[in-house]
Amino acid sequence: MNSRPTRPTTLLLRRLARTLNRHLAGATAGDQTGVHQARVTSRRLREAIPVLSTGLKGSHAGKAARKVRRLTRALGTVRELDVTLLLLDELSSDPDVSRAAVEDVRATVVRERDLRRSVMIKRLERVDGQKLGRRLASVGAALQAATDEPWRKALGARLVDRSKGLLAAMDAAGHMYAPEGLHEVRIAAKKLRYGLELAFDSGVAQAGSHVRSIKRVQEMLGTLHDLQVLQSYITATQISGGADLRAALDALAAHVEAQCRHLHARYLSAIPALREVPPAIRNVVVPQLTPRRTRPVKMTLSRATAAPASRSGR
Fold first, then answer.
1. How many CB atoms lie within 10 A of CB 93?
2. Count of alpha carbons within 13 angstroms of residue 35, beta-carbon side
3. By the 8 A CB rule, do 169 and 180 touch?
4. Residues in contact with 193: Cβ distance below 8 Å, sequence separation at least 6, in sequence order
5. Any long-range contacts for 236-242 (C-beta under 8 Å, 24+ apart)?
6. By the 8 A CB rule, do 179 and 267 touch?
7. Cα 245 from Cα 153, distance rounded (Å)
8. pTM of the prediction?
9. How far apart are CA 251 and CA 98, in angstroms?
10. Alpha-carbon distance 202 to 187, whole Å?
11. Distance CA 209, CA 163 (A)
12. How far, in Å, CA of 213 to CA of 276, rounded?
C-alpha cells in the first residue's frame, strides 16, 4: 500500500482541473466571470502541464496540453470584447466624454462580441470535459508515482529563459510609446509570472514577492492593451459612422489616447524595479528549485568521530 503523502504538484494539478471545470460551465452559459476565470486557469495549466510532466511516463500530458491550448484560444476574443465593454461603461460616466459617441462605439463592439460569443460557445460545447479531466488526472497520477522530480530542473531552466525574454522585450520596446513593443513586454511578463506562480505553489516562498512585482506591471500594461483594443473599435466606428458624431468620436479617441500615454509614463517609471527581477530569479528562486542533496551517513559519522581526535591532538 502506497502511504506517500500527496505531492503539492499533484494537488496543484487537481485544483486547477477542478477550477477549470467549474468555470467552463459559466463560460458556456455566456457568463463574463466564467469566461475570464476559465481563460486564466487554462493559461496556468498551459504553464504547468509541460513543466510538471517532464520525464514522466504513462501520462497523457501532450493531449491534455493541446486541449487546454484550444480552450484558451476559444475564450480569448470574447474576453477581450467583454473588457472593452467594461471600459465603455466607465467612459459613459465621464463628464468629459460624449455619451452619444460612447454608445455608438458600444454598438460596434456588441455586434462583434455577439458574433464571437456564438462561435466560442460552439467550440466549448465540443470540449469533452470528462476526457480532459481524465487526461489531467493521468498527469497527476504519474507525478505522484515518480521517484524523482525532473520538473524542478525544467522549471528552473524555463524561468531563466523567460527572464531573458522579458529583458529582451523591454530592450526592444525601448522608451518610446510603441503599442506593439509594449504588447510584447506584457506577454513576456505574463509568461514569467505564470512560471513564478508555479514555483511558489510548489514551495518556493521567495517567488512570491517577484510574482507581485511582475503582476503590478503586467496589469498596468494589460490596461494599456485594453485601451488600445478600444481605440481600434473607435477607429472602426469613425470609419463607418456618420458626420454628425465625427467630432465627438474624435474627442473620445483623443481622451483614450491620453490615458494610454499616462499608463506608458507609469510603465517607464517602473522599468528600473522590473529590471531587478530577472537577476533575483536566477540567483534566488532557481537555486531553491534544485533538490537538496543529503549527505551520506558514513561521511557524517566519520567526521563526527574524527573531530574529538583532532581536538585532543592540539
1. 9
2. 22
3. no
4. 211, 214, 215, 218
5. 236/108, 237/104, 237/105, 237/107, 237/108, 240/108, 241/104
6. no
7. 58
8. 0.83
9. 8
10. 23
11. 15
12. 10
**E-assigned strand segments in 141-268:** none
Cell of 124: 466549448
Distance between CA 268 and CA 279 in Å, rounded?
19
Tens of each residue's pLDDT in the chain, 314 residues: 456 688 888 888 889 989 998 898 888 887 889 989 999 999 999 999 999 999 887 777 888 888 898 888 888 888 899 999 999 999 999 998 999 999 999 999 999 999 998 888 888 888 777 888 888 888 888 888 888 889 999 999 999 999 999 999 999 999 999 999 999 999 999 999 999 999 998 889 999 999 999 999 999 999 999 999 999 999 999 988 767 788 999 999 999 999 999 999 999 999 999 999 999 999 999 999 976 543 443 434 333 334 443 343 34
DSSP 8-state class, residue 282: I
User: Do 171 and 185 form a contact (C-beta atoms < 8 A)?
Assistant: no
- Any idea what DSSP says for residue 241? S
Residues, the chain, total? Answer: 314
Cell representation of residue 254:
483623443
Tell me the CB-side half-sphere exposure of residue 210, using CA atoms within 13 A: 30
Cell of 166: 522579458
